[in-house]
């Protein structure tokens, strides 16, 4: 683009169709780390729906060499290369354009575009990385077919991969070789991929539902081949699931996954050639935890599902990002739930649902309340990389889930079928998806559009009334946003359509059959009522006794429910609610209420006490063998310190930490014998199995061990943890034991854990992902007055295994400290904020995307106590004067505004 066509703020309202279309592109790469030559031959034509006299191509960090139209080299006067791209004057209506350019992959620390990692070539093009590879119409609504020829030294780069199908390969003079790939499906440039290097593959051939044979490959560095089986199994399960659930079949002859250790994201869905962070591919029992195994299954599923929801149908523009991401997160959530509990085991599926909602409430709700608040479909941005957010992904998934809640699985499938029938091969909008759901189900969903355009977390207030004489129970729902952040308030135009699932429970703990006023008969024990007005009343009849409402079952909408349960009522729901999610929710509400009261007393310097009835409620869950171990573990984990701080008028991390630690110690002391019994009962002897059932036993066992470490005398916990560490046959148990030893060290002295820390490093120093765990465990430990964690983190930054250039390593140490250790990061002396500022500035010079993610640790600074606020503001202002990237500047400026 020209210098004037790069506005500071890009707005959805300004969308214009591309002036030119590309019918086909042929790319030739001569791969050399210091100077890769790219020859780009495009067939272009003017878009009849747009007008432009000249051609504007995007390009960044490129060296322009030459350009030719229809074989004739263009004179210098006809081409202008500039920092934003390439401008060519007076082009024909249809023509072939050949551009030769050069880039320097070896020096590309941004990990966007073409770069070198561990001596191999990789690409990352979403959102705007392709323009760092060649001059192009780098926008998602320009879709074309790609033919790609790769040439490189055969010894250094024996494997040459790109999108689609391999159609030719062979040797060249001077020890070089080539491979030619053709992708038969039109795609935007952000889905382009290239990999070249010394890699090996786990291969498997399968037949799809229609009987076609497909080649599946997982490519890794040779020493990691033994860690690829789970990723391959996850891929096969994903392919089978998408066929069965949505009738969607793999469309290419082969599907490839490639793992790279230097990667800004989790993975990328490039058509047929998915490039993954090693974190979401590599796993065996010695190196990966149960959580890692689950995450790999989910991320492999997510990227594979993008083949249809993102690739075959893609985004018209980046404001529509949730069209593909929210939909595909929902699909991967459903896939993981089906893998865990099938389509009918709601108790098992609820474990996945609870995990998903916990992330949403702890992190996305906070985003909704801050300066970066934005709708699921944003209206403007400065740097698109900053909008790969929890709102777009996780809240976007909840918006998609509400279609299924409204229409059921069959209705949702009808909507999906119509969506693909209408839009396969197109770049479309969130409105196109909503219209397909509406038309397939005969519904007017005009009001539902507000979920895409309004920011903030809705609140639903509930009032109830029971009339014994008429046996009528009325539920009045009212919706609003409360004290929304300014960034969210300006988007809020009217009431939403909120599917609100409700059940009623009698005094014996049984579900009451539900009949709404005006209905002929009762229909089920959970009803989804549709709140469409600011306030509505729903009346249930034939209710023979005052019931206890079970509200927003299975978290049927991403809202905050305001209803004043008593502690006894919450304890009753925790013991009896048939909806597994709401059982967990009742326990969380009970614990949150107790912990916030404790934090207030800690702030006031008052003695701390923990209600006996809350201990009793936790005891009942702990010892209830009718509940799955996985569910009990989730129910017995106290709300996080970050979530609790969010619930305070002024966040006070020190008070929250004191309150939560007091509660953990109280539960440890009161239930010591029960924790010991649980630890023994839920051991998993024998060969390791990464199944949901076995993982649930390990999770509950390791939670028991963690609680035992909170005892005034943690000798039992240290003894058990040392034995578990020494004899563990899997990383889940070994890492959990090490974490317990670190926790015990806060009370018993550093020596308790140091031996295990040293042994852990010696065992796994050749396993980068495990060393990431070693760094993270130390960054998130509790610390002590004599040795705050900031000192440990600064020491570890000088460790030979630490590198700021590797995003995984930076996240393992720096992000873990700043985002996952609030009590230590928010130290009263401001040392955490000074450290944060140093690292943001350092990362900004290397990798702005990673720096921007770290920057967000302080975006909510205005919600903290005055003393902390002042120190955070100083750190933000220091960063504002030193950083250069749009990525970081957008976040800092919005935070300070």
- Output the CATH homologous superfamily of the largest domain: tricorn interacting facor f3 domain
What's the helical proportion of residues? 40-55%
Please indicate the count of domains. 5
| CATH secondary-structure class of the largest domain | Mainly Beta
Structural class per helix/strand content? Answer: alpha+beta
Count of extended strands: 31
Uncertain spans:
1-6
Q: What is the strand arrangement across the widest sheet?
A: 6-5-9-3-2-12-15-14
Mass-distribution shape: globular
The largest pleated sheet is described as: 8 strands, mixed
Gyration radius over CA:
28 Å
Portion in beta strands: 15-25%
Q: For the record, give the distance between the C-alpha atoms at the N and C termini, rounded to a whole number.
A: 30 Å
Estimate the mean pLDDT confidence. 96
CATH topology of the largest domain: Immunoglobulin-like
Number of helices: 27
Protein architecture, described:
Helix content is 41%, strand content 20%. With 897 residues, the chain is α+β, with helices and mostly antiparallel strands. It folds into five domains: 1-196, Immunoglobulin-like; 199-278, 2-Layer Sandwich (Zincin-like), CATH 3.30.2010.30; 314-436, Neutral Protease Domain 2 (Neutral Protease, domain 2, Orthogonal Bundle); 459-564, Sandwich (Immunoglobulin-like), CATH 2.60.40.1840; 765-897, Peptidase M1, alanyl aminopeptidase, C-terminal domain (Zincin-like fold, Alpha Horseshoe), CATH 1.25.50. The strands form nine sheets. The chain has an eight-stranded mixed sheet, with no helix packed on it. Helix 15 runs antiparallel to helix 16.
């Amino acid at each position: 683009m020209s210098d004037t066509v790069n506005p500071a703020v890009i707005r959805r309202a300004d969308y214009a169709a591309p002036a030119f279309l590309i019918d086909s592109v042929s790319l030739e790469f001569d791969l050399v780390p210091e100077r890769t030559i790219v020859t780009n031959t495009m067939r272009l034509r003017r878009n009849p729906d747009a007008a432009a006299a000249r051609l504007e191509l995007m390009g960044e960090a490129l060296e322009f060499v030459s350009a030719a139209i229809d074989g004739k080299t263009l004179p210098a006067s006809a081409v202008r290369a500039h920092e934003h791209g390439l401008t060519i004057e007076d082009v024909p209506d249809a023509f072939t354009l050949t551009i030769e350019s050069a880039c320097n992959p070896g020096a590309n620390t941004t990990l966007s575009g073409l770069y070198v990692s561990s001596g191999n070539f990789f690409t990352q093009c979403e959102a705007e990385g392709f323009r760092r590879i060649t001059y192009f119409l780098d926008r998602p609504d320009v879709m074309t077919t790609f033919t790609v020829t790769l040439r490189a030294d055969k010894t250094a780069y024996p494997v040459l991969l790109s999108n689609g199908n391999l159609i030719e390969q062979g040797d060249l003079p001077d020890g070089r070789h080539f491979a030619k790939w053709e992708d038969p499906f039109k795609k935007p440039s952000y889905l382009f991929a290239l990999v070249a290097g010394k890699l090996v593959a786990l291969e498997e051939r399968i037949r799809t539902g229609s009987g076609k044979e497909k080649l599946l490959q997982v490519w890794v560095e040779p020493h990691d081949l033994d860690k690829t089986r789970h990723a391959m199994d996850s891929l096969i399960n994903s392919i089978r699931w998408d066929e069965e659930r949505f009738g969607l079949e793999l469309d290419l002859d082969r599907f490839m996954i490639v793992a790279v250790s230097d990667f800004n994201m989790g993975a990328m869905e490039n058509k047929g050639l998915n490039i993954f962070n090693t974190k979401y591919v590599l796993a065996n029992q010695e190196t990966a935890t149960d959580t890692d195994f689950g995450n790999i299954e989910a991320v492999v599923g997510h990227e594979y599902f993008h083949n249809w929801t993102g690739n075959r149908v893609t985004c018209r523009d980046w404001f529509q990002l949730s069209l593909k991401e929210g939909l595909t997160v929902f699909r991967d959530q459903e896939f993981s739930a089906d893998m865990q509990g099938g389509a009918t085991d709601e108790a098992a599926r609820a474990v996945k649902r609870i995990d998903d909602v916990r992330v949403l409430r702890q992190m996305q709700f906070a985003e909704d309340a801050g300066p970066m608040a934005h709708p699921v479909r944003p209206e403007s941005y400065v740097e698109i990389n900053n909008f790969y957010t929890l709102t777009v992904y996780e809240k976007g998934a909840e918006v998609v889930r509400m279609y299924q809640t409204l229409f059921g699985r069959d209705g949702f499938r009808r909507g999906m079928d119509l969506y693909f029938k209408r839009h396969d091969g197109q770049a479309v909008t969130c409105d196109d998806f909503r219209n397909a759901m509406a038309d397939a189900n005969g519904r007017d969903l005009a009001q539902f559009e507000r979920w895409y355009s309004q920011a903030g977390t809705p609140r639903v207030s509930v009032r109830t009334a029971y009339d014994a004489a008429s046996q009528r129970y009325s539920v009045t729902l009212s919706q609003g946003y409360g004290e929304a952040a300014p960034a969210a308030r300006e988007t809020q135009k009217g009431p939403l359509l909120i599917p609100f699932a409700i059940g009623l429970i009698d005094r014996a703990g049984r579900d009451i059959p539900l009949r709404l006023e005006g209905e002929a008969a009762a229909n089920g024990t959970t009803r989804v009522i549709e709140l469409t007005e600011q306030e509505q009343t729903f009346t249930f009849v034939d209710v023979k006794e005052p019931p206890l409402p079970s509200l927003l079952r299975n978290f049927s909408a991403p809202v905050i429910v305001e209803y004043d349960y008593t502690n006894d009522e919450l304890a009753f729901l925790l013991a009896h609610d048939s909806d597994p999610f709401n059982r967990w929710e009742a326990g969380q509400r009970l614990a949150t209420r107790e912990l916030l009261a404790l934090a207030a007393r800690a702030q006031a310097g008052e003695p701390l006490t923990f209600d006996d009835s809350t201990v009793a409620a936790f005891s009942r869950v702990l010892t209830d063998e009718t509940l799955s171990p996985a569910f009990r573990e989730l129910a017995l984990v106290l709300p996080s310190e970050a979530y609790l701080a969010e619930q305070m008028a002024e966040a006070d991390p020190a008070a929250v930490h004191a309150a939560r630690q007091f509660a953990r110690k109280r539960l440890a002391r009161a239930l010591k014998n029960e924790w010991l019994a649980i630890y023994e009962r839920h051991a998993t002897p024998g060969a390791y199995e990464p199944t949901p059932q076995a993982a649930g036993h390990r999770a509950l066992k390791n939670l028991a061990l963690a609680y035992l470490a909170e005892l005034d005398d943690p000798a039992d916990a240290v003894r058990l943890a040392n034995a578990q560490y020494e004899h563990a046959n899997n990383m889940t148990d070994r890492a959990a034991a090490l974490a317990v030893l670190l926790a015990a060290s806060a009370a018993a002295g550093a020596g308790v854990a140091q031996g295990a820390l040293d042994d852990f490093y010696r065992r796994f120093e050749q396993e980068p992902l495990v060393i990431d765990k070693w760094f993270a465990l130390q960054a998130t430990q509790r610390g002590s007055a004599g040795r705050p964690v900031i000192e440990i983190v600064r020491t570890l930054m000088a460790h030979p295994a630490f590198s700021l250039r590797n995003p995984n390593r930076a996240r393992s140490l720096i992000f873990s400290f700043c985002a996952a250790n609030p009590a230590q990061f928010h130290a009263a002396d401001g040392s955490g904020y000074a450290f944060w500022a140093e690292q943001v500035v350092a990362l900004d010079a290397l990798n702005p995307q990673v720096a921007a993610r770290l920057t967000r640790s302080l975006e909510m600074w205005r919600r903290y106590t005055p003393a902390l606020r002042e120190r955070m503001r100083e750190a933000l202002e220091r960063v504002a004067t030193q950083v250069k990237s749009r990525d970081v500047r957008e976040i800092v400026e919005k935070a300070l505004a």
